[in-house]
Specification:
By secondary structure, the protein is mostly helical. The chain is about 65% helix and about 0% strand. The longest helix is centred in the C-terminal third of the chain and has 20 residues, at about 160-180. The radius of gyration is 18 Å and the shape is elongated.
Amino acid sequence: MEDQMLLWSNALKGDKAAFKQLLEIYFPILYNYGMGFSQDKEVVKDTIQDLFIVIWNSRSNLKKEVNVKAYLLCSFRRALQKKANPRVKTISLTNYQEDRSSFHLNTSVEEDLIRKESVAKTANNMVALVNALPSRQKEVVYLHFFSALSRDEISEILGIAPQTVSNILQMALKKLRASARNPVEISA
């Protein structure tokens, strides 16, 4: 974490090598997260590139003391939503509906690793269970378990209260536990 903060600080000072290293570290993380919203790989890649261009161009105005991962995920999510629907500035949480900006869990990279460890059947069953969750719950589960973000970081990314994140996560886990009692059989 401190290494990333140092890279961030150096990048904001104009260090191109540090900036490039940040891009290399976070590109796969942002790409996997973005593929949960859009199946258009080029849109996801372009949005990541656009985000880093904006960061580079406005580096003198950015805060030096930030959680880099949470900041980038939050900024990327907003940029991707803006690109998907440029007329909508933000998603109203009270009127949140399943739409094309909804999050869809895509774990192909994780599935490949799990298959190599010979537990693909369990992984596929878990993915099926997670994919059966409502969109918002899937996104919180992904951010918490796959991206290892804290409740406060997820709160910042999604623009909701930390307690709401906890509530969503608890509802998702309750549904997953109930579904795990009656597992879905998926062939590997």
